[in-house]
Amino acid sequence: MVLLSRTVLTSPFIFDGPLPPDEVVGRDAELATLHDRAAHGRFVLLHAPRRYGKTSLVHRLARDASATGDLAVVIVDLEGVLTLDDIARRIQHAYRRLPRTPFGRAVTAALSALGTAGVAVSRGGVTVAPRSPAEATPVLEHLLQLPHEAAGRTDQRVLVVLDEFQAIAPVPNADAVLRSQIQHQRDRVSYLFSGSEQSLLRAIFSDRARPLYGQAEQIALGPLPDHVAAALVHQRFEATERDGGQAVGPLVATAAGHPQRLAFLADAVWHRTPEGTVADLTTWDEALGLAIRRANPEFVAVEGGLPMTQRKVALLLALGEPPTGAAAERMSLSKGAARGALDALVDKGHAHHRDERVALVDPLYAAWLRDRFGPRD
Q1: What is the CATH number of the domain that holds 214?
Q2: How many CB atoms lie within 10 A of CB 255?
Q3: Pair 146, 251 in one domain
Q4: Apex CA 15: angle with CA 263 and CA 262, to 5°?
Q5: What pLDDT is recorded for position 122?
Q6: Which of 42, 125, 133, 228 shows its CA 20 to 30 Å from the CA of 101?
Q7: How many distinct structural domains can be found in the chain?
Q8: pTM, to two decimals
């Protein structure tokens, strides 16, 4: 008889996709704020750097709303859309994924009315065929009306989440079509726009010439507090018969509140801490080296996509140097070039304003830069 080992081989730290709703921690205040705004018919822009947990937060909000029954949530993933037809298709997919609640059944029933708009309805749902912008506009308008119609049938408030909303910025007329419909829906439907690329989001909501100018309250999803991050690491290690020990302090400091990088680094430490042992500073040094090596292809690709001036400013930020100081002069960076490169890094999402200074968004990218280009002892 072969006895199966009970040793845990899979790390408890998830870093390669959105978290299950129960795994979302340290976001109670944000969840309460978003639920409150949704309950009162507000439009909100939730923005944060990529991999900061926006999608995980949205799914937790939907799970909580489903449990209380006071809010029906529709989540539309707009990542990579190129045309109005793409947007219509993504909305249709979101409707098809709705659970068979009264609201979900009401949306399904409302889809049957779309035949008059040239949208084919099949047993599997609505099928949006490729069409010209002129043809796609009425289809998208009809699809945008469905949550309001279904909410009227069920007497339930609805929250429509448009995730990765910045993707619509270059799609001609997309924000105009959207506003033409949603501006009349506040009595039953609230909207949450979620996105990460600051330059594109500014183009949508802060440009007076754009239809959605000033239409949403802006809420930033900030870094995880250090005490929340440390408690999470300790808890997950303890649950798998390990002790984070001395490694937890530098791990949390290095992650700098970045949720995905916290899990990525904690995973590396976990794999170097056998069951029944305690991690120490040597464990941490080895784990950090492992994490940097694992991320090397990603950062090589990042560097390859940046002009030299932006690469230099990124290195200065990683080293904690001001982009227009003496270190910049030694790198032959003029003040004008450095400021332009810094603005570009912020617009691209590689850097952000934090604690009255500008820092790299990805703390592991900063560690990689220091390891590769920083001064040697």
Answers
A1: 3.40.50.300
A2: 24
A3: no
A4: 20
A5: 47
A6: 42
A7: 2
A8: 0.87
